Amino acid sequence: MLIFAVETSCDETSICIINKDKKILSHITNSQREHIKFGGVVPELASRSHLQILQKISKDALIEANIDIKEIDVFCATCGPGLIGGLLVGSTFAKSLALGLNKPFVPINHLEGHLLSPTFNNSIQYPYVVFLLTGGHTQIYLINSINDYELLGETLDDAIGEAFDKVAKLLKLPYPGGPEIEKKAKNGDSEKFKLPHPLQKKINLNFSFSGIKTAVNLIVKNNNNINDVFKANLAASFQRTVTQIIEKKLELTIKHLKKRGIIISQISLVGGVAANKYIYNRIDKVSKKYKCLLIMPPQYMLSDNAAMIGWACINKYSKKQISDLHFKANPRLTINDTLL
Ligand code: KG4
Ligand code: ZN
Is 142 within a domain? Predict the structure, then answer.
């Protein structure tokens, strides 16, 4: 069975052709560069860019996989959550192909794509815990099995990736800011600036990042020498603070689950921010302390990509072969909104 997967929920246009035995025949992702000069994703530009490039990268993906489009058995696309323009472009494109070729179309929840990404390359012991760390989401999930997900906590304001991007913008670093902050932080003193720990006293699993961003803004405004050393120190202090918050939430998650009689042995970090090595190393240490294994998806499944969408499609629908050409893209889709 051959699956043609489309991902267009934010600023990555991605196509993957994958078979049900997990063989990736081709995987092409175009990260849009139109947004760099704005320091953040401009939705209208994102939709236009998806529209412009989808056909070309689809053709390239078919050539790379050395197959004819008629050989595809199932078409799938991200139908939410995300930016509505991009979701409409990608899902309509995949639906049209399915309709024209008389093949099934499977709508995929983007969050589920991220949550199932560590199951691609790890042998899983259910239940496992996932920290979903992206530009749009910061959530903690308990994954009991495929189709059984419990949201344990989430951000009350900014997403963690958004905080990285906004702090980078304040430090006049390019977009996307996450990798730039990580690079700068390597040469910085992470104890130079004391930043707030929002919700520190709350024994719950929610996050808040907007106060840290405001604190960084004040520090920048009160400093008239924004040189490389200053940037490195502030980047390092910010990175350390958000990592401490994730560490704390991980410990609270393990304790909370233990109280409910749930012992987990695997923890995963997924989403673009999970590419951060400093966060990975620190979370790895905490995981070990609680005798848990930190499992990661393949590197190419961290940032938005169509391979995780194709993999979610294989997991959920390959046996049932259910098609839903009428599913409406939903920018606010949650994990428990049933798609089929
Ligand atoms: O998962 P993703 O590609 O897209 C969303 O679904 O949002 O995540 C993008 C986010 C951006 O905010 C980007 O700055 C952040 O992931 N990011 C990082 C790193 N690489 C990407 N944040 C921190 N450290 C990194 N190395
Ligand atoms: Zn994502």
Answer: yes
Do 253 and 132 share a domain, yes or no?
Answer: yes
Indicate which ligand has the atom closest to the C-alpha of 133.
1
Does the CB atom of residue 82 touch ligand 1 within 6 A? no
One domain for residues 77 and 203 = no
Q: Is the CB of 113 under 6 A from ligand 1?
A: no
pLDDT digits (tens, 9 = 90+) for 2-25: 999 999 999 999 999 999 999 999
Q: How many domains does the chain have?
A: 2
- Neighbouring CB atoms inside 10 A of 267's CB total 24
Whether residue 323 lies inside any domain: the answer is: no
Whether the ω angle into residue 104 lies within 30 degrees of 0, i.e. cis, is no
Query: What's the 40 CA to ligand 1 centre distance in angstroms?
Result: 12
Question: What residues pack around ion ligand 2 (CB closer than 5 A)?
Answer: 134, 304
User: Is the CB–ligand 1 distance for residue 276 below 6 Å?
Assistant: yes
**Domain containing 266: what range?**
122-296
| CB 304 less than 6 A from any atom of ligand 1 | yes
Amino acid type, 55? Q
CA of 302 to the centre of ligand 1 (A): 8
Number of Cβ within 10 Å of residue 80's Cβ equals 24
In a domain, 212, yes or no: yes
Q: Is 80's C-beta closer than 6 angstroms to any atom of ligand 1?
A: no
Give pLDDT tens digits for 88-127: 999 999 999 999 999 999 999 999 999 999 999 999 999 9
Which domain CATH number covers 47?
Answer: 3.30.420.40
Q: Are 118 and 270 spatial neighbours (Cβ–Cβ below 8 Å)?
A: yes
What pLDDT band is residue 137 in, cutting at 50, 70 and 90?
very high
